[in-house]
Amino acid sequence: MRRLWLIFAQAVTVSLAILFVVSVLRPDWVSLGGRGAPATLATEPPAMAPAPARPVTLPSFAGAVARAAPAVVNVYTAKHVDVPLIPLPSDPVLRDLLGQLPGAARRHESTSLGSGVIVRAGYVLTNYHVVEAADAIEVALADGRETAAQVVGADPETDLAVLKLPAQFGETPVATLGSDGGLKVGDIVLAIGNPFGVGQTTTQGIVSALGRNRLGLNTYENFIQTDAAINPGNSGGALIDAAGNVVGINTAIYSQSGGSLGIGFAVPIDTARSVMDEIIRTGQVKRGWLGVEPQDLTPELARAFRLASNSGVIIAGVMRDGPAGRGGLRVGDIVRSIDGNEVQNTTSMLAMIALLPPGQEVIVTVLRNGRMVNLKVKIGVRPQRSR
């Protein structure tokens, strides 16, 4: 009897232990409710099903591209070049003489490509170097239409040109021109063009810097720098902001390989608009001119002249019978201000004079022999650079 009791006690103990373990680890196995009704020993509510994941909205500039891209065109040019068949001497006289001999050269057609922006009905804004010396120009729109175009005028000193589409070509999309005045470093921009002739392409980046100059690209430089990929063929295309407004005309890249290295330059749209309007109105751009050869006042020159700072421009040459010569400027004068506006360097001085209307009289303040002298100078018209 005692043996049976021990066996019963052990069986009950083992059963209770198993029940305890099961109720803790798998309470859904224990049924304390009605028949077929699952129940658990736990008092916590059953776990809720996970909520569906919220859709993630990724940033997109598709709207901006759709607004601007139809007005960006591909520009194809062709020009004829005489390729010499015999080595020509370095002497220019002999070179011209031998170059005129029959059979000395062969006529060769050279083609190039670029981009442009339709800025108003019938007019395309592009770079001067895209259409320079072209014998024929073709413009292809994003919708597939193509037509010949003619150069209305060009401004090599800002590397801009305006093309005219035929009147019978029909309606065309027109880009919305913004303003570069509100641009800040870090703003998102997109470049639209025809890189390497593969077709219309959009790249994205930010404004890397503003007011870039002294790059040796143009006479007047005030570039927007961007890391949006700009390659050969993008020249003349649109640089747009996140809303699709044109803020610049893509012009050049810094590259050692010919491809994009993330350093591209665009002419600000405010400058481009001013040049474009004058070209459409008069066929050319007239700028103020003094007729001097300016030179930056380096620290060494500042010490030689015993100056406290090196701001200002020293006159290294004066054109005979030019506006500056007639106004009394001399070689060695240090220009401090023009009409009260301080002159910092040659870049700022050239830009300041270029904006002055020809015929206007201004007061040029110079440092001469240790004392300030005010000279009244009548602004002239800057001669057109040969194309």
The helix content, as a percent range, equals: 10-25%
CATH topology of the largest domain: Thrombin, subunit H
The pLDDT mean sits at 84
Task: Give the CA-CA distance, first to last residue.
Answer: 125 Å
Please identify the structural class as seen in this structure: alpha+beta
Q: Detail the poorly predicted runs.
A: 32-42
Describe the oligomeric state of these chains in a short phrase: single chain
CATH architecture descriptor of the largest domain:
Beta Barrel
Helix and strand pattern: HHEHEEHEEEEEEEEEEHEEHEHEEHEEE
Number of strands: 21
Q: Give the CATH H-level superfamily of the largest domain.
A: Trypsin-like serine proteases
Q: Shape, please?
A: elongated
Q: Mind telling me the C-alpha Rg?
A: 37 Å
Largest sheet: 7 strands, antiparallel
Structural account:
By secondary structure, this protein is α+β, with helices and mostly antiparallel strands. The protein has helices at 2-25, 62-68, 92-99, 128-131, 269-282, 299-304, 323-327, 346-354; strands spanning 72-84, 105-120, 123-126, 136-140, 146-148, 150-155, 160-164, 188-193, 201-212, 223-226, 238-241, 246-253, 264-268, 288-289, 292-296, 313-318, 334-338, 341-342, 361-368, 371-378, 380-381. It is built from 8 helices and 21 strands. Strand 8 (188-193) and strand 9 (201-212) form a beta hairpin. The protein has 3 domains: 70-169, Thrombin, subunit H (Beta Barrel), CATH 2.40.10; 188-282, Beta Barrel (Thrombin, subunit H); 288-381, PDZ domain (Pdz3 Domain), CATH 2.30.42.10. It has a 7-stranded antiparallel sheet with strand order 5-4-1-2-3-7-6. It has a 6-stranded antiparallel beta barrel with strand order 8-9-10-13-12-11. Strands 15, 16, 17, 18, 19 and 20 form a 6-stranded antiparallel sheet that branches. It is elongated and about 140 Å long. GO terms for molecular function: serine-type endopeptidase activity.
